[in-house]
# Entry
Amino acid sequence: MRDYREFEPTRKRRRRFDDEPRPTRHPLDLTALDERAGVEDDGPPEGDRWSTWDRAEHGPLPRPDWVITDHGAVDTDLGVLKTGKEADVHLLERAVPGTERRALMAAKRYRTAQHRMFHRDAGYLEGRRVRRSREMRAMATRTAFGRDLLSGQWANAEFGALTRLWQAGVPVPYPVQLAGTELLLEYLGDDDGQAAPRLAQLRPEPDELSDLWIQLVEALLGLARLGLAHGDLSAFNLLVHEGRLVVIDLPQVVDVVGNPNGAQYLARDVQRIGEWFTSRGHVCDPDGLLADLRAEIGLPRASHGG
# Structure
């Protein structure tokens, strides 16, 4: 009889944990296929970073001709223009390598949770809502997550307000883009990086002061037609660029009707800026301006002292 045991398969010997691994028969040198020659492929050949245009929310149409939308453009930080409690403003150059195309912008970067939290948000945020109750609770209790949400809300609020105001013809910087908590804005200043002065820095002659007041009235009426008040208006939040008054710093913009304190914010704006012009010798009528703004918004005539 035939012995079938001779056909039993030979069992493989289990490899011991201390056996030496077998070398690859023909190892492949992957570095020989790398054509980058040691060059970092994530960073641009010059500047600080690639343009963030393709990852951002874009400003309104039609865009000014100076806005650079090329994905191959490079951003270079040229230094700080202004520091503040809620945000720092840097001078940023966006340029297309190998060409003469370049544009200067103001990069407003809102602080996140690890920095000082916003000190003036409670009243301004009334009337603004987010969808999730968890987010509302986080912002109310000022957790780290909540403070990050607040900084994002400030950036989004300013970008949205600037977009609406620019489209309505109100003199504000053009909002180029929003990426996270960084807002890129039209830079108002000269090509050497000297920013336009704030109204508070100037000592205008009487004729110039009168012209600036007229421009201010038109700007505030433009806000009022949209039902808005600046919310923190002063001579520090107005730029004068080549004789043109420009309204800046609008993260706390107030919906006058939707915010329970909207009328008070509007009145405070007018009082503050009216006092500045009056102290410089300009004869103006802040009470009359406030009445006109309230009428434009659709508010009833204010009672005496209210």
Observations:
- Residues 54-186 form a domain with the Phosphorylase Kinase; domain 1 fold (CATH 3.30.200.20).
- The two ends are 118 Å apart (CA to CA).
- DSSP finds six helices and eleven strands in the chain.
